[in-house]
Amino acid sequence: MSTSTHTSLEFLTKDFSSLKEEIPFLAKNLTSYITFDNLFYYTLACIAFNPIFWNIVARLQYRTKFITKVTRSAKLGCYLLAITIFSLGIYRDSVYHELLKAQPTYQPLLDSFIIKAVAVVSFAVGNIFVITSMWSLGVTGTYLGDYFGILMKERVTGFPFSVNNNPMYNGSTLCFLGTALWYGKPVGLVVTLFVWVMYKIALLFEEPFTAKIYAYHLKLD
């Protein structure tokens, strides 16, 4: 074994040993590294608003066709909703970054090579899930086209759906996690958990309703 390899292994071992002490400490003292201010609650509100918004608007569209009536085109209406949802997501992410900058840093997370590596992998895998799922579904498949009557011809089963049932939501959650770890911000871990919970709640409403839409159109055919 070369000297450089031996040195690297020693460094990683020391890093891992340090994390075994620092992570439990952080878990016990998590609230000490979070400032529960207006920006914190506003960030949670932005995160909660997005899935609530698109579920309410999409269901209203399905029942009343109010967007289609305005745009006079189902596809154009879906594109309009897509732009709105995408823009809200960009704004939510910017608020999240502002929160991270304003919140306390847990230095052991920031200094750890292992945590940095996990952050990079988490962010990379998350983006791969999001981008490839959007590529597979297209704009209308990604942004609730079925509520506009624009249905997929068949279920998408290729990557990333072959390894993950909800790659958009899980990928987004991984991006939140990766960003929090990269900047060593404990508040980001709490926000990531909140993101995961909100997406799980959204799926409780979305999956049965989407199945109902496809079942109805299958009956018509």
Question: Would you give an account of this structure?
Answer:
Helix 6 runs antiparallel to helix 7 (167-182). With 221 residues, the chain is an all-alpha fold. Helices cover 79% and strands 0% of the residues. It has helices spanning 3-28, 38-64, 66-71, 74-102, 107-111, 113-142, 167-182, 186-220. The radius of gyration is 21 Å and the shape is elongated. Residues 205-221 are cytoplasmic. Its EC number is 2.1.1.71. Catalyzes the second two steps of the methylation pathway of phosphatidylcholine biosynthesis, the SAM-dependent methylation of phosphatidylmonomethylethanolamine (PMME) to phosphatidyldimethylethanolamine (PDME) and of PDME to phosphatidylcholine (PC).
Give structural attributes.
about 220 residues, mainly alpha, 8 helices, about 80% helix, about 0% strand, elongated
Question: SS-based structural class?
Answer: mainly alpha
Total strand segments: 0
Strand content: under 5%
Say what oligomer this is.
Answer: single chain
Helical stretch tally = 8
Element order, helices and strands?
HHHHHHHH
Sum up the overall morphology in one term. elongated
* Helix fraction by DSSP (H/I, runs of at least 4): over 70%
Question: Could you tell me the mean pLDDT?
Answer: 92
Number of domains: 1
- What is the terminal-to-terminal distance? 67 Å
Radius of gyration: 21 Å
Largest sheet: none
SSE layout:
Layout: H1 3-28, H2 38-64, H3 66-71, H4 74-102, H5 107-111, H6 113-142, H7 167-182, H8 186-220
Protein name: Phosphatidyl-N-methylethanolamine N-methyltransferase
Function: Catalyzes the second two steps of the methylation pathway of phosphatidylcholine biosynthesis, the SAM-dependent methylation of phosphatidylmonomethylethanolamine (PMME) to phosphatidyldimethylethanolamine (PDME) and of PDME to phosphatidylcholine (PC).
Subcellular location: Endoplasmic reticulum membrane; Mitochondrion membrane
